Structure formats: structure tokens, C-alpha cells
Amino acid sequence: MNVNREPALRLQGIVKTFPGVRALDGVDFEVMPGEVHALLGENGAGKSTLMKVLAGMYQPDEGQIIIAGQKVRMTTPIEAKAQGVILIHQELSLVPEMSAAENIYLGELPRKSLGRVDWKTLEARSNAILKRLRCNFRAEVTVANLSIANQQMVEIARALTVDARVVIFDEPTASLTDAEKVVLFDIINDLKAQGVGIVYISHRMDEIFTLSDRITVLRDGGYRGTLNTADTNEDEVTRLMIGRSLDLSRDEAAREFGKTMLDVRNLTCPGLFENVSFSVRAGEVVGFYGLVGAGRTEIAETLFGLRKPTSGEILVDGETVEIGSPRAAIAMGISLVPENRKEQGLVLQMNCRDNMTLPQVQDLTAGPFLSQGAELAIFDQYRDRLAIKTPSWRQSAGVLSGGNQQKIVIGKWLSMQPRVLIVDEPTRGIDVGSKSEIHQLLRELAAQGYAVIVISSEMPEVLRVSDRIVAMYHGRIMREFSIDEVTEDSLVQAISGITSDTAA
Amino acid sequence: MLLARLKAGGPAIAKQGILVAFIVFMITFSLMSDRFLSADNIMSVFRQSAIIGVMALGVTIVVIGGNLDLSVGSMLSFATVLVVDLHDKIGPELAIPVMVLATLCLGAINGFLIGILRLNSLIVTLGMLSAIQGLVLIYSGGQNVDIVDQTGTWFAIFGRGAMFGIATPIIIFLGLALVFHVIMTTMPFGRRVHAVGGNPTASIFSGIPRSRVVFMTYLISALCVAIAAIILGSRVMGSQNNVGLGYELQVLAAVILGGTSLLGGSGSILRTVLGVLMLAFIQNGLILMGQPYYTQWLVTWVVIIVAVWLDVAAKRGRLFSPIA
Ligand SMILES: Nc1ncnc2c1ncn2[C@@H]1O[C@H](COP(=O)(O)OP(=O)(O)OP(=O)(O)O)[C@@H](O)[C@H]1O
Ligand SMILES: [Mg+2]
After folding, report:
1. pTM value?
2. What is the number of structural domains in chain B?
3. Residue B150 and residue B237 in contact, taking contact as beta carbons nearer than 8 Å
4. pLDDT tier, A254 (very low <50, low <70, confident <90, very high otherwise)
5. Model confidence over A35-81: pLDDT tens digits?
6. Which of A56, A359, A459, B121 is close enough to B67 for a disulfide, judged by CB 3.0 to 4.6 Å?
């Protein structure tokens, strides 16, 4: 395809090192005008780093960037933007205190005389862009009040303010609902039709195969090859990416369930969830499936002592308990892997080991002092078990790749050896190989007698890991399925609030 | 060239920036005054820095925990006036514990308002700064206080005494620094302070009792002020009722020079010691060069701004921000 055309942008032999890491090792990459070029690779393979080089945020140690046949040097994101290269970040980079409109035009607010901001034009233009994105909020709202998904839309809106040559999407769908994804894909196809080159990074194979024209695979910072999407398949791409095929089967071994570890009766938190009752036995994985905003995270937070229910009962291992704080929850053997790794899961400037041992830090002591040995033993164990990629335990968690950050958080809570493990969107941003390993791990943990709750918005995920699935809609449990009776259709119906006859 | 070095070194040099600046200062001053590097002068700088230094240790811990403490200046006035005044009334063996308890109470008020009620630390401690100064004036009735028998009391040992030929204030300062360094780097409490300052939300999600940790940092800060007051009262054997005026800024300057981030979550006790010494040597150097004390304020400010600038520049790899 397009062989006789000039690429919109080309990277040649890009090398980028950080202390202790060769993040990019001679990578070639190009995007044609009007092409969607997917970039794939494991967590830490160097995808985000490559894109930051492209967007002027990092300077490559070696190699060159060629735009429209011209060799260019871009030392700031502003210079890159002037060249028409726009990066939509994996991690949101908005100013939370400002309005959506100000964020969209940040740094280039329309002006009136005397440098005054032209608010009318600003808001009119911003609202027009948001409308194009089919957003149901106004540009005047403060970003902090928007959901993560809507913040993501603001981030995307930024890209539409200039004449873009290349737009880079770094895992844009990690926190979008299916409906929002459809909108995003429309936008991408629009841009493509206008001749804009698109780089699309995602760990979701289905998206990559619907959207992309070509796929480039990175592995350990090295270039592994470029394939035409039409001529390849998921298995080939996966093997290029992780060096083996994936086993996506369900572990069907018959399960023995123990006694009820967690029993929730008529739990209510007005406005968030109402009359929620369910139980989880030792050895069992219960999946909570529903749309974003169905109240699943809020239930998890209540069980972890972060919210107070107004009525209802919680029994842990047969005993009625009051869970007043996360400390109390931890003492009862409850662990929560939270939804948002950067805000709730990690202290970014703290090193990987210290992050992992944080909840149990007062127990890892020799006399009054922290035991380096005990801490390192925990870190090493979970680094190996979760295949966490970091040059050393001293690395601050903030510079790890997104997926590896998530693994640190999972390791942190697994190392507490809980009786009840609650994981909220555990594989957000995690590569296909590790994802399937985490699924297996959750199954193994259950087999060892843990009671596991998995909250997920991905149907294949709940279907793969759960023994039972609880479907939620608007703060209520619509239906419970055992894994043998569940079908995709009935699940979709239940989470959209449609009650079928069988459910009654 | 500096720029190139900054780029090449990245964050590594950021950590050493202050050390480099310190050495440059030392060399400059020693070229300008031959008394500057004499053993006598060095000892006297160390001794004079002890009071600011001890307070800076506590404030470093508060700042790592993500807060500020501007009340230490008037808290020092309070504690010094109290211990000196009580010395002749109830004797030093009682005056010291009473003063320490009273000062800890002030710290507890800070800790309660900021740690438990979650009020903004800048506002609370700024308010405490003037409230405590008022308290001192009420207590002393505006009079300065003195110890009558200045030579016959063992209270003199804290400010005027020496052990193994080293002045006691220096021993107290460096000893405390070592203790706090050990607490902050090798004990669970230190880890928790770093976590709470670095990301309060994630700390709560990790089961760390954030309120209690913050409360404790203010108690520690007050304890440090109490110890500084003992040194000061013992050295002067008397006290003006506003003796700590302006100390809060000097203390904060030392903490910032030491590279502790005002955003919380990172910083180091030992580097605060370096910051304290650097500040003290600059001020001493200026005095030796015959500058009046108020030039010190100007120079101190310039030094802090340059230190902060180099720190930021090293982190982003360029001297000037690319963003207009
Ligand atoms: N600023 C930095 N300092 C040090 N190391 C870094 C920095 N940025 C990235 N790295 C390292 O470079 C490697 C590549 O990271 P990158 O973020 O590009 O991965 P990625 O392919 O985007 O992964 P993910 O799918 O998890 O987002 C990782 O090992 C990461 O720890
Ligand atoms: Mg990435």
C-alpha cells in the first residue's frame, strides 16, 4: 500500500537510554498519510518512549526524525505541535483546576486586545469540538469534576485544535466505555479520511484488528517488524510480541469451594448502590460485571473501609464486622487493588520495593528497624511472579511503564496474603501476555483458598476468571449467573437494565 | 558547559547541586578571608548554626510529610522565655520538662488542626506564628527575662559547655541529625512520612493512618524547637520575648537549600544539615568581609533562588523553561 507516497513521518534508528535501561535500541517506524499504524509490544517494550521522542518530549541519543522528507529536530512538544505532531498521552496530562475549554486551548488561548482572553471564542470553539466528539458535557466545566473517560475526551479534543499531520493515541481506550470507544473510532476514521497519519497504541487485539492498516511490533526496545493487518492474525502478532502463543482457555478443573468468607447483606449507600447482597466462598472467584458507574467500585471501597454504608451487614468469615478504615479491612484480611494506579495505588516518587511493601511496613522489621532482607524478599518474589520489568528495586515507580506500575500495585496486595482479595479493573493497560498470566494467577489464588472478587468492564475477562458473575446496573444487582449458565447475551441484557423473564 | 553537565548528569547532579555550590562558596570565601577556614571560625559557625539546625531537622520531617511549619520562630520565643523564666522560679530540673511539655502542646495544636481536621498547614502555622507571639507577650508582660545566677547553674552546659573539646550545641545538633536520619531512612515511621507526603490518597489506600502520621510530624517539630530553646536559653542565660523572630524563614531556607521538596514525599535529614551549614557559612563569610547583617538577608535569598533554580533545571535538563 501507498508505496509510492512519501510517509507523513519517519523515524530511523532511534536509540534512547535511561539510567540502567536501553528503552529504545535502533527502532525504525513510519506513518503514511491516511494510515492507522498500530504499535504493539509488552509492558515496558518502549512504545510510549518512542512516541515521546516523536512528540519532542525526549531527545533521542541516536537516530533521526524525518517529516515530509525533511530531517527535523524537535526539542519541545510545542515544536512538535508546530510540525503537526500531536500526542494524546497514556497518562492524562490535564490541569484539573481549569475548565475543559482552557485545557483544550492550553498555551494558545484566543486573545482580544491587551492580551485579554477571548472567552466567548474560546468557549464557542471548544464546545464545537466537544460536539464533534459527541460529548455530553459543556466546555465550561472544570476538568476535576469530569469522569476519567470524559477527561480522556478533553485530552483527545486538544488534538483537534490544530491541523494535524500525525496524531498519536497512547492507550486511549483504557478507561473508555464501549459507547465512548465507538465515538473515538469514528473520530479516528474521520482523521484518517482527511489524510492524517494515526499511530495507535493499545493492548486490545480486537481494536487493533478493526482499526489499523499496519502493525509494528516492539520487543525489549528493539524493532521486531511491521506487518500488514490484512495479511496477519492475532496469533502471529502475539508470537512476535511475546515470543510464544497465548493460552486463552479457561481452567476448567472442578472446584471445591470452602466456607463463605465474605457475606454481604442488603448493603446500601444511597445514590451509589442499594440493597446489595452477595457472598463469596473460599476458593471462588466472583466477577462483578457492569458499565462504568454501575456502583461496583463503590461497593469495593465500602468493603475496604473507605466508605460508610447507611444500612446492611457485612460478615467476614462468619462474623459480623464494622469496617471503619482500610487499616481495619487489612487487619481482617481484605485487600483491594484499586482502580486508579497513579492516584490510589502508588507513591510515584517512591521506589518500587517500598511501594510494594507499604501496607505491611510496620511488620517487616528486625527490632525497631525495617528489615531490608524481608522487604527485598517480597519484592523479588512478586517481581518474578508477575514478570515486572524494572532495572532495579531502586527505580521510582513513576518512571515505570504503565503496565509495570499496575503490576507493582497487584504485587503489593498479593503480598499481603489476604483472605478476601478484591481487584478493580486489574488488567487495565496490561499487555496480552501478562494479562493472561494475571488471569491464571487469580484462578490459582482461588485454588489456594482465597476468596476473590474481580471487578471488570471487559466481558472476556469476567468470563475467563469467574466462577460466578454478578451483573450490576445503576447501583443494583440485576442478576447472578453461575459460569455454566451464563451467555454473552444475557450478560449484556442484565447490565443494561433489561430484566428478562428468567431473571425474575 | 554547565548546561551540558546538567543534561548529561540528569537527576544525579541535581542531588549534588547543593554540594557543588557549597564547595564553590567555601573556596570563594576562603580566598577572600584567611580567617574563614581557621579551626576556630569553623567551630564557631557550627556552634551558631546549631539552633537553626535543630529546628530545621523537625521542619524537614514536617515538609517531607507534605506540610509546612512556619510557627517554629515564635514557638522558639515561647519556649526560651518559658525555660529561662522558670529556671529561677522552680529550678532547671523542673523548668526543662515543664517547658518541653508546654511546647509539645503547641505542636499538638498544630498537629490536631492540620493532621486531624485537615486544615491547610500554611494558614494554620502562619496563624500560630502570631498567636504564639501574642501568648509570649501575655506571659512575660512584655518584659525580657533573665537567669540571675549565670555561672552557678548546670543549665549552662547546653549552650556554653563542651564535651571532648566539642561544644555541646554541636554535639546535640549532629547527634539529633543522626537519630532523625536513622528514623527517616530505616524505620517504619520514616517510610510512612514519605508515603503520606508523596501521595496522601495512596497512603490511605495502603492502610496508613495519615492523620496520626501528620500529627506526629508536628510533635517532632515542636520537640526540636524545645531542644533548640534549651540551647538558646542556656547560651544567652536570658531571653528577649521575640528572640525567635524570623527564624522560621531561616529554617525553611535551610530545608529548601537541602533539597527537600516543598511538594512533600522527598527530602533528607543529612542534606538539611548541609543546607544549614551552607547558610551559616555564607552568613559568617559576609560578616568576616565586613558586611552588615542585613546584606545577609539579601544574599540568603539570592542563594535560595539560585539553588531552587539549579534543582529544577537539572530535573528538566535545561536552564530555561521551554514553555513561555
Ligand atoms: N523517564 C524515564 N526514566 C527511566 N526509565 C524510563 C523512563 N521512561 C521510561 N523508562 C523505562 O523505559 C522502558 C520503556 O518504557 P515505556 O513507557 O516506553 O513502555 P511501554 O511500551 O509504553 O509500556 P506500557 O505498555 O506498559 O505502557 C521501561 O523499562 C521504563 O521503565
Ligand atoms: Mg506506555
Report:
1. 0.86
2. 1
3. yes
4. low
5. 999 999 999 999 999 999 998 889 999 999 999 888 988 888 888 88
6. B121
Determine the 3-state secondary structure of A331 from DSSP. helix
On whether the CB atoms of residues B209 and B217 are closer than 8 A, the answer is no
In chain A, residues with a C-beta closer than 8 Å to the C-beta of B191 are 354, 358, 361, 370
Region B107-120: what's the mean pLDDT? 97
What is the C-alpha separation between A479 and B109, in angstroms, rounded? Answer: 52
Q: What is the C-alpha separation between B65 and B62, in angstroms, rounded?
A: 5
Whether A171 has a pLDDT exceeding 80, the answer reads: yes
Is B38 part of a structural domain of the chain? no
Atom of ligand 1 nearest to the CA of A58: 1
Q: Could you tell me if residue B299 is inside a domain?
A: no
List the single residue in A78, A338, A347 with the smallest CB-CB distance to B195.
Answer: A347
pLDDT digits (tens, 9 = 90+) for B144-192: 898 988 888 899 999 999 888 899 999 999 999 999 999 999 999 999 9
CATH of domain A9-242: 3.40.50.300
pLDDT in tens, B65-78: 999 999 999 999 99
Residue A433 beta carbon below 6 angstroms from any ligand 1 atom: no
Q: Where do the structural domains in chain A lie, given as residue ranges?
A: 9-242, 259-333+419-504, 347-417
* Domain boundaries, position B85: 50-143+155-270
Q: Is the CB of A406 under 6 A from ligand 1?
A: no
CATH fold for the domain made of A259-333+419-504: Rossmann fold (3.40.50)
Using the mean position of ligand 1's atoms as its centre, give its distance from the Cα of residue A44 in Å: 5
Non-local (6+) Cβ contacts of B56 within 8 A are B251, B254, B255, B258, B272, B275, B276
Measured between CA atoms, the residue of chain A closest to residue B199 is A347
In-domain check, residue B309: no
Nearest CA to ligand 1 atom 25: A43
Give one DSSP letter per residue of A138-192, joined into a string: -TTSBGGGS-HHHHHHHHHHHHTTS--SEEEEESTTTT--HHHHHHHHHHHHHHH
**Has residue B1 got a pLDDT over 50?**
no
Nearest CB partner across the interface for B198, out of A78, A349, A370: A349
Q: A490 CB under 6 A from ligand 1?
A: no
Let me know if the fold of A9-242 is the same as that of A259-333+419-504: yes
Supply B187's cell numbers. Answer: 524505620
